């Protein structure tokens, strides 16, 4: 990146990749995205694959998870059915995904990102926003230099490549990282934002999916330029709150901040009752409902907990906390509930409780969670049933399926919903 006036190469490292930009010393918001991540990790681990088209996919869903760039030349794309991918590229090597390995590499990359700035907001296993503003003193260099070095570091230490988008806001940083993939480094400055966006399709805007694109198109709006020349109130009249977003983003106005991820210590849900409760008939349905809430959060966050924690508060405000460590981390409502139930049963001695909570701690990724249990066939069967319920809930909403424990039990005399909440305890 550093260059002498007449040189076509960097005088510091000899690279022919030179980047010039007016705002290069000013911009500090980056989006970093690993290139063909799963495929890159597999190629790193097996050099024989380097010059072969590689598809990570198959398995249960029968679609392409990631295609390497060689396979993409033949027209293979992510989410394509495997049979189509192999029609397009019959010579491709196919490897089933090894999520455990990719999560590990993803965490290593994230760890190195955190050495640049604490403001790292992961979007998925292989991409994140980084806010490097205010780090110039620490690194003794502007963000663009720090990022260029980071690209080299990832290649050397992790053995994969990344693409960087550098801008002044999230919206354009994310677009930029995609511009010169793979091994891309693109910059979109404030001055050029309007012109850059002008001829782009509306679908490039974050939050404009298939349905909204179709609606905008049918209203005659195809390019961002058309949005740029429409007044805010007109857009809001037609598209509601989204209209305001269209107005702002089409003009490169995006004030969303990079929200760093906090390491969570535990995830729990608890309820304070209207009337103090003491019987298992009253408490068990609540425990079940709360277990499902906790599990929902874990599944959404792709995390699992190794220890189940039951919390009770008695009528006279005394807390009782009971834990049990499991043989493996879990994210299943069923395992959380049954473990919680065995802890709860010991506490049911007529004491009246004003609060019940259940949660998990010792959090980790979900790679090792809930292995098929060869000993407890019943638990395996229930885990399968739970997966089927999750599928229905994802499709038709949380309330679509209720278990026998909670069915029809949300009526009178039951806990108030306003005081029921899910807690995330965070490490500082
Ligand atoms: Mg990626």
From TrEMBL:
A GO term, aspect molecular function: damaged DNA binding
Span of domain UmuC: 29-209
CC annotations in GO: cytosol
Cofactor binding, per record: Binds 2 magnesium ions per subunit.
Reactions accelerated catalytically: DNA(n) + a 2'-deoxyribonucleoside 5'-triphosphate = DNA(n+1) + diphosphate
Any one GO biological process: DNA repair
A Pfam family hit: IMS
Superkingdom, taxonomy of origin: Bacteria
Database matches in InterPro entries: DNA/RNA_pol_sf (IPR043502), DNA_pol_Y-fam_lit_finger_sf (IPR036775), DNA_pol_Y-fam_little_finger (IPR017961), DNA_polymerase-Y (IPR050116), DNApol_IV (IPR022880), IMS_HHH_1 (IPR053848), Rev_trsase/Diguanyl_cyclase (IPR043128), UmuC (IPR001126)
Database matches in SUPFAM superfamilies: DNA/RNA polymerases (SSF56672), Lesion bypass DNA polymerase (Y-family), little finger domain (SSF100879)
Active site: 127
HAMAP family from the UniProt entry: DNApol_IV (MF_01113)
Stated family: Belongs to the DNA polymerase type-Y family.
Function according to Swiss-Prot or TrEMBL: Poorly processive, error-prone DNA polymerase involved in untargeted mutagenesis. Copies undamaged DNA at stalled replication forks, which arise in vivo from mismatched or misaligned primer ends. These misaligned primers can be extended by PolIV. Exhibits no 3'-5' exonuclease (proofreading) activity. May be involved in translesional synthesis, in conjunction with the beta clamp from PolIII.
Protein name in UniProt: DNA polymerase IV
